[in-house]
Write a sequence for this structure.
């Protein structure tokens, strides 16, 4: 039995609704709207906007700086290497996801075109080093949450996902530093 709406004013006949056609129409409209929201920041030619590229480049650079921090802490406190290596690996993957290098810039070969960055200062005690890394992760996650509002669709999801991972890293580092 089809679903019917109340009759129109002045007519005794109810108006039949075909839920199959309505569902199809709503589905088609929803698909068009979703497709428009998830273009990944690309224009009709498939190129990302300059603002999106700039945000991605900054995110890649930030990940490289964080990677340098991990390397500095591992170098200063080799006993932490086993704990930090999985988090460092994820940070390297984040840098790659944003289009950067998965290698630490402090470990990169130095030359006229690619000077090595100075390693960040690391506290002498392990607890302090872990707290410093946790703070760096938190600050970067906060920055990524701010940046995701300026990028479209897939790029915003990438920023949100990496920010969430940074929050998880900060938590793990804070717990390890206790």
């Amino acid at each position: 039995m089809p679903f019917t709406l109340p009759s129109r004013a002045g007519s005794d006949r109810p108006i039949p609704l075909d839920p199959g056609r309505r569902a199809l129409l709503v589905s088609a409209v929803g698909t068009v709207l979703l497709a428009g929201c998830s273009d990944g920041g690309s224009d009709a030619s498939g190129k990302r906007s300059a603002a999106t590229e700039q945000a991605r480049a900054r995110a890649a650079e930030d990940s490289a700086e964080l990677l340098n921090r991990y390397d500095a802490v591992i170098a200063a406190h080799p006993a932490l290497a086993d704990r930090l290596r999985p988090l460092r690996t994820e940070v390297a993957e984040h840098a790659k996801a944003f289009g950067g290098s998965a290698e630490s810039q402090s470990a990169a070969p130095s030359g006229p075109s690619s000077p090595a960055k100075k390693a960040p200062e690391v506290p002498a005690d392990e607890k302090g080093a872990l707290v410093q890394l946790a703070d760096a992760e938190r600050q970067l996650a906060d920055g990524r949450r701010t940046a995701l509002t300026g990028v479209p669709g897939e790029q915003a999801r990438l920023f949100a996902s990496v920010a969430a991972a940074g929050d998880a890293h900060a938590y793990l580092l804070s717990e390890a530093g206790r």
User: Anything to note?
Assistant: The helical segments are 19-37, 50-76, 81-97, 126-147, 153-176. The beta strands are 4-5, 15-16.
